[in-house]
């Protein structure tokens, strides 16, 4: 069956959830909270590390799902389909970034972290470089986060992540399945995407100012995601919580499959959205006012005849935020305890466990309090995201410097970080004040010829009569290169300063370095495995 464009209209946005939608949505969140209650009744943690590190006894399967859910936030679930809808499926190239990121995290950083047996990832940095309404929904979200984390600790957060990941995939899958039914198969969707230029995956243009190319996505995306997975406390803490280094590696590699599945489904939803709206773009016609409203509008539009399914999709979207923030609270509690409580106060393990729970509760309340400010943060919130990206690259540069080069010292690490951070903040703030010229960020062609009614709000490109060199080029660098530039500047400056300040004469703790043994351990493992299989086959032949 083919969808008629005359069915589209602003009235879809005015629809509210049915009672069944609310029931399903509430039930899904309640199930997540029950996981925290369940682990709370398993007994009071014997130590703070039991609460924050799940007794270091987690298997790879739940950790893998939890890792995949953490950074697939609601912004990604809603933003990726809109990105594919407007700019094409080049976003799928992040699959390569994910793969490279997992290999680097598992084979370079993880062996060093696990050998040290730490709780906070920031201890590695210190050791390596030292010479000795709109906000009501947020309130509901915060309540569930507090319940899950405060009651159950990391173990509850991880197991809740399994449920939340599956819920997210089910929601994305339902939207795609419904779109296929509407269009009469997947073939028409691919045909429309091809005709509309949405299958533009292989753009090898070397221009770093282009928003997305093969190079910006693969290279820039790799640096961005390695910063998240290799040096971010919320991710690394779950590696530490695995029962063995092998489990942690398996979790990382299985997480890769989870990331691929989420990326594919979100991209398919974007292509489906274009196929259905190719003759009546809701954004250009004024039906929606922002790109991040496209996916919610799409869901309400195509699932309006199926009460309960919109509620299931929204529950899946909420789940990604639930997992991201709850694991973030756990990471904040861990770092606060390790860096600000234990060095200055001598407490028993029992008291430390209660302090850990109290810190988690405190951060949960802060999260709840911030919900009231979300609706008035506006551009400040966007600036906060820029700050997050600006810090991630330089941090990756510091950790890379510390575990790869024995001569790295605190002076080099400090000056390298300052230089990397300042340069990226300079670019980030400049890009906010002087955004890239419209022709650099204009989406692929979108039509409103088939709209029954619209505001006829065609976007007009406003080319500035004069822009300075920095405004035209420096501030227009693709956002995906922010982490890359930050890491490289930190790494290069840190290397030079360390060599100039006596880094070659320092005593080195080789436990802090990535070694040849770390690199060869997997090769030896598979070599032994192959020999074992061959011997078993020879035995069977006899």
Automatic annotation (TrEMBL):
Membrane-topology annotation of the record: Multi-pass membrane protein
PROSITE patterns: NA_SOLUT_SYMP_3
A Pfam family that the UniProt record links to this protein: SSF
Signal peptide span: none
Name the record gives this protein: Sodium-coupled monocarboxylate transporter 1
Keywords, ordered alphabetically: Cell membrane, Ion transport, Membrane, Sodium, Sodium transport, Transmembrane, Transmembrane helix, Transport
MF-aspect GO terms: organic acid:sodium symporter activity
Organism expressing this protein natively: Laticauda laticaudata
